[in-house]
Amino acid sequence: MSTGPAGHVARSTVRPYPETSGAARDGTPLRTFLRTADGVRIDSVYEPADAVDAVDAVDAVDAADGRDPAFVVAHGFTGNVDRPHVRRVARVLARYGAVVTFSFRGHGASGGRSTVGDREVLDLAAAVAWARELGHARVVTVGFSMGGSVVLRHAGLGGDGPGAGADAVVSVSAPARWFYRGTAPMRRLHWLVTRPSGRLVGRYGLRTRIHHRQWDPVPLSPVEAVPRIAPTPLLIVHGDQDGYFPLDHPRMLAAAAGEHGELWIEPGMGHAENAAPEALLRRIGDWVVARAG
Length: 293
Description:
Distance between the termini: 36 Å
Number of helices: 11
Radius of gyration: 18 Å
Helix content: 25-40%
């Protein structure tokens, strides 16, 4: 497994729901399969901003004419576009802009096999490109856990031209470094990824198809990617009750970001999208509107 150039993506070429081709204009969600630069089909959903529940009248006008920002939401490991917590995140963020959700490779209905944060940058790049194609000049990536590491790496690796990257980045519950085994949940995750029996459990129990090959070369880590993100606005969010990654992870990321990043340590919060309360998601939406809206 190795990482190709993030942001270099092919156009969406497979649209199994042609009857929704006008959805970006009439307010109906779109669902399609995007194709990544390395040829993987990614199950993706676009939902226009919720003009009825917009934050204010100005937002409602923006939602109607496409000037609202688009949030591209990157789920955690073993998640997918149809998981209830991913849909909940999308519903809340739709108050602030359009939302693109998708299933990473090896997850849900998407093709390929999971590389646990390596080539997933290509999946995110395809989703960001799709949001741009749909007319959004401002695109914000919001990632959780594995998705949090992917949004950092995608932003740090850059793209192949203007508009290929994100206009702001929000990383929630992300690791700072690879191969961490300091907590029981992470030891279980390493068993799931590295052992044949674990990958069988992932495939049939968690609907997650995991690649059997180890990383070669080892991809750029999140903490190595973060200094490359500036001057793009960066928000790092982490719960003080996270059972996967203790607080040294977000603090390492914040230290690497320096003055261009913000760190929120959330009291009582656990791990990833499952643990993110609606109030936090609304604060994230407010932060995005202030920085990239």
